[in-house]
């Protein structure tokens, strides 16, 4: 079946990249696996809407970032309702904070999710501002300003963590 | 000379290859001649390289079993999707379809069993005939007292 073959090819070619992107966003294997699985299910369902010649990675990264954003919102609201934390931090963020030790990863974990996505897409995935805009769903101007703000924060955070570790 | 230095944002855009060609060339030339701005470029590049190094150091393979799980879930989803599709479609399709079938049966039945065209009743003939019969047998049982409007009018 054509749809099945499409999924097979997508997993084979982009499964690892998608999982790694999800892992860098979430910082843990369980959430990254869930995100990856859900993203590929959506690809499978909407396979006919994929236009050949366009970037598959941009498409699936867009799905992953949207799923991640929705999951964060869901967790935040559940977290506030159930536990009333003193710190306004989602559990997923705390998990990332607790499990990553390197200055860069800790600094990344401290970034706001919107900023982290853009930094990862621009600097790790090597996406253009336009591609990032399509993935994240904002204008190139917004991508530019968020990236600059994120990099400014990242610079300070990396310096702070490097000083504290040395 | 400060105003001729590119902003940090411009240097970051330059590093990401996001500047128009003319501006890109201008900044490229400026960086070659300005150690201060080139230092900023190096700092920004170091951040990008640190991020890439972190990414490659933490790169992972797909967890074992994840691809299989995706495949099996996709197949289940597919079945579920079709089921949902038909379930969702049922009232939408079945009600109009039933209406169309009922209409077709009605029209078909009528066209096959079309009743004969009604024979026009010649009312004037019956009235005149009756009047003539009443006149010929005025005391017959069947003869009701008749008053014709037209007769009244002629009197």
Q: What do you see in this structure?
A:
The complex is a heterodimer of chains A (166) and B (155). By secondary structure, chain A is mainly α. Chain A folds into 2 domains: 1-99, RNA polymerase sigma factor, region 2, helix turn helix motif (Rna Polymerase Sigma Factor, Chain: A), CATH 1.10.1740; 101-166, Arc Repressor Mutant, subunit A (Orthogonal Bundle), CATH 1.10.10.10. Chain A contains 8 helices and no strands. The termini of chain A are far apart. Residues 83-101 of chain A have low confidence and may be disordered. With 155 residues, chain B is mainly alpha-helical. Among the domains of chain B are: 2-57; 63-110. Chain B is 72% helix and 0% strand. In chain B, helix 1 packs across helix 3 (35-57). The longest helix of chain B has 47 residues, at 66-112. Chain B is elongated, with a radius of gyration of 50 Å. Chain A binds chain B through residues 3-4, 7-8, 11, 15-16, 19-20, 23-24, 29, 33, 36-37, 40-41, 44-45, 102, 104-105, 108, 119-120, 122-124, 128-129, 144, 147-148, 151, 154-155, 158, and chain B through 8-9, 12-13, 16-18, 43-44, 47-48, 50-55, 58-63, 66-67, 69-71, 73-75, 77-78, 81.
Question: Could you name the key traits of this structure?
Answer:
heterodimer, A: mainly alpha, Rna Polymerase Sigma Factor, Chain: A, Arc Repressor Mutant, subunit A, 8 helices, 80% helix, 0% strand, globular, B: 155 residues, mainly alpha, 6 helices, 72% helix, elongated
